[in-house]
Amino acid sequence: MASSSLSVVLILCLAAAALAQLSTTFYNKSCPLALEKIQNSAATAVKNDRRMAASLLRMHFHDCFVQGCDASVLLNETSVGGNERGAFGKVGSLRGFEVIEQIKKDVEAVCGPVVSCVDILAVAAPNNRACVGGPSWEVKLGRRDSTTASVTQANQNLPVPFLGVAGLNASFVSKGFNLTDMVALSGAHTIGRAQCQNFRGRHYNESNINTTYATKLKLNCPSPATNLAPLDDDTAVAPNPELFNNDYFINLQSKKGLLHSDQVLYNATAAGCATKDIIKSLGRLL
Ligand code: HEM
Ligand SMILES: *[C@@H]1O[C@H](CO)[C@@H](O)[C@H](O)[C@H]1NC(C)=O
Ligand SMILES: *[C@@H]1O[C@H](CO)[C@@H](O)[C@H](O)[C@H]1NC(C)=O
Ligand SMILES: *[C@@H]1O[C@H](CO)[C@@H](O)[C@H](O)[C@H]1NC(C)=O
Ligand SMILES: *[C@@H]1O[C@H](CO)[C@@H](O)[C@H](O)[C@H]1NC(C)=O
Ligand SMILES: *[C@@H]1O[C@H](CO)[C@@H](O)[C@H](O)[C@H]1NC(C)=O
Ligand SMILES: *[C@@H]1O[C@H](CO)[C@@H](O)[C@H](O)[C@H]1NC(C)=O
Ligand SMILES: *[C@@H]1O[C@H](CO)[C@@H](O)[C@H](O)[C@H]1NC(C)=O
What we know:
By secondary structure, this protein is mostly helical. The protein has two domains: 2-157, Peroxidase, domain 1, CATH 1.10.520; 165-284, Peroxidase, domain 2, CATH 1.10.420.10. The protein is built from 14 helices and two strands; from the N terminus they run H-H-H-H-H-H-H-H-H-E-H-H-E-H-H-H. The protein has a two-stranded antiparallel sheet with strand order 1-2. The structure holds protoporphyrin IX containing FE and 2-acetamido-2-deoxy-beta-D-glucopyranose (NAG) (7 copies). One 2-acetamido-2-deoxy-beta-D-glucopyranose (NAG) binds next to helix 8. This is Peroxidase. Substrate binds at residue 159. Residues 21-286 form the Plant heme peroxidase family profile domain.
C-alpha cells in the first residue's frame, strides 16, 4: 500500500502532541456514543461536500499551531483575543465551522455538553477514510477547550506559503516537530484546494515548476485571486485530486507542487537535502 509509510509517520506525529493523561477511552463512561456520533456527522458532511475532508483536517492543524490544540480556532470575538480565522486577513480561507457546530449539537443531543470542541476537531479530522481514503489514526481524548484565542499568535505561528525551507523548519521546530514530521504533515496537501492568491506568484515567476503544469494553472488563474486549484494535481497513482494518497510526494518530484512552500521541500539546493530524501521515500511507488 502506497500510503502505509505515510500513515505511520502521520500517526507518530500526532501522537507526539498528546499529553500523558489523555486517553482513547476518555468518554467511555460520560458519552459512550461520542466517537460514533462525531464520525457519522463528519462523514455526512463529507458526503455532501468532498472537500470538507480537507477543510476539517486543515482546521485541526490551524487549531493546534496556535496555543496548542484547544479549539481556540473556533472563537471569534474580539473580547477573547480575536478571530484566529481572520489571521493574515484571510477571512474565509478556513472552512467547516458550521460542520463542527452541527457535530457539537449532535453530540450534545445524546450526552449534553461533556464532549469538548477540541476533541470533536481532533476526531473529525482523520475520520474520512470512507470518503477520501488514506490513513486514519486513533485519537487520545480529554483535551479542554480554551476560553481565549490569539490572533497575534495565529499570525506569528501559522506558516505562510511564501516561506522557504528555513522558515518552514523554524515554524515546525517551534511546535516540537522535526523535518520528517514537517514533510509528512505537508502531505495533507494531497487533498483540498488553494486560492490563486496563494500560488500565482509561483507559476508566473518561478523556474522550479513543470512547464506543462504551469501552463495549466495560468489558464485558471490570471484572476480573480479567489479561483481555486487542487493542492495535489494527483495523476501519479490515481486520477483524482480528492483522494488521500502519496501523489503529493510523487508530484513534487516532477515539479508539480502547487504552493511555493510545497515545492521548496524538494529543492535540491535546500539545506542538507534532507527534505528531498524524505519526499523520495514517502513518494515511492510501492
Ligand atoms: C508546511 C506549511 C504549510 C503551509 C505554508 C500551508 C499553507 C496552505 C495554504 C496557503 C492553503 C490554501 C488556503 C487557501 O488558499 O484558502 C492550504 C490548504 C490546506 N492545508 Fe496547508 N499548509 C501547510 C501545512 C499544512 C498541514 C501541516 C496540514 C495538515 C496536517 C495542512 C492541511 C491543509 C489542507 C487539508 C488544505 C486544504 C483545505 C481546503 O481545501 O479547505 N497544511 N495550506
Ligand atoms: C522526528 O520525530 C519523530 C517523532 O515525531 C521521530 O519518530 C523521528 O525519529 C524523528 N526523526 C529524526 C530524523 O529525528
Ligand atoms: C471504550 O469503548 C470502546 C468503543 O466502544 C471499546 O472498544 C473499548 O473497549 C472501551 N474501553 C474501555 C476501557 O471501556
Ligand atoms: C462569530 O461566529 C458566529 C457563528 O459562526 C457568528 O454568528 C458571529 O457573528 C461571529 N462573530 C464575529 C464577531 O465575527
Ligand atoms: C531547523 O531548525 C533547527 C533548530 O533551529 C536547526 O538546528 C536546523 O538546522 C534547521 N534545519 C533546516 C533545514 O533549516
Ligand atoms: C512576478 O514578478 C514580477 C517582478 O518581481 C512582479 O512584478 C509580478 O507581480 C510577479 N507576478 C506575480 C503573479 O506574482
Ligand atoms: C512535467 O509534467 C509532464 C506531464 O505530467 C511530465 O510528463 C513531465 O515528465 C514533467 N516534467 C518534468 C521535468 O518533471
Ligand atoms: C531553491 O533554492 C535556491 C537556493 O537557495 C533558491 O535560489 C531557489 O529560489 C529555490 N527554489 C525554490 C523554488 O524555492
